[in-house]
Amino acid sequence: MPSQTNNSDLIPLGSRPIDRAGHHRSDPAWLAEAFARDDALVLILQGGLPLTSGDGGLVWLGPEAAKLAPKAEPLFLGLDKAGAPVFALEMPGDFDVNTSLIAGTGEFGDLRMSLQRMPEMDANLASTARSLFEWHRSHRFCARCGAESERAEAGWKRVCPDCKAEHFPRTDPVAIMLATYGDKCLVGRQSMWPKGMWSCLAGFIEPGETLEQGAARELHEEAGIRCDPGQAEYLFCQPWPFPSSLMIGLILPAENDDITVDKSELESARWITRAEAREVIAGTHPEISAPMRFAVAHHIMKEWAERPDGSS
Question: Which residue numbers delimit the Nudix hydrolase domain (predicted)?
Fold first, then answer.
C-alpha cells in the first residue's frame, strides 16, 4: 500500500510557507507602502543566482534594498506568517556585491547547490522568484503583435501597450516517473550528470495528451518500456525553477523489462531491485547514488523503496 506521506506540501520546494496575497498585486499604493515598511523582507538575485550567506540561507534585506538598484521593479511574493510583506529584486548585471552597501553579507551562488542547504521557506521563495524573473527575461515581447510588453501586477503579469494583450507566467508540466516490474524499478542517467548518479526518467507533457499518457509515451520513447497509462499512480508534484516546470511524480507498472535506450535522450538505463533502491536512498549502494534530496526524483524513489517487498 502507498505510504501516507504522498503530500506535495512535504516535498522540497513545494511547501507553502507564506500567503501569496494575490489581491494586493493590483494595488500600486498598497505595494509601495508595503515595500517601504520596516518589517519588509527582500531577497535579491542576479542572473538567477540568489544572494546567500555562509550557512546556505538567503540574505534577507529590508526596504533599504531599494538603494541597491533604484530602477529594479520589486516582485511581490506575499505575506509571511507574521504578516510581513516579502519581495524579491533582481540586480542588474553590473551590480557588484563586494563594492556595494551590503558588502560582506554573502555572495550570489548557484541555486541548485544552495537549495541543498536552504531552509524550507528560503528554498520556496528563491525558487518562485527565479522562475518569475526568468519568465520576464524570456517574454519581453508580446507574442501576439511583437511589441515590447510591460510588467504589471507586482511582477505576475505582462501587458502589451499596443494590442493590450495580457501574458501570464507559464509553468511547463513534466512527468517524472518510476517504471516498476515486479520487485524492481527502472532508473536512467544522462552523460552530463555526476558520476554514479541515476534517477527516474522524465519528459515534458505534449499538447493533446494526459499526464499519464505522456509518462507512458516518454518511458517507451526513452527506454522501450511499455506501460498502460490507466495503471499510473500519482504521488506528488514539485515546482522546479530551471527554468519553470511542475515536476509531477508517478509510478507506472511496466509490461516488459527488455530495455532499448534512445541514446539521444539517455546514456543508459537499468533495472534495480527494491533492496538496491533502499541502498541507493541510504547512500550505501556501491555503484549508484541517488538524486539530490531537494529533487522530487529522490522522493519518488524513496516512496517506492520503502514499500513492502512484493508491493507495486
Answer: 169-294
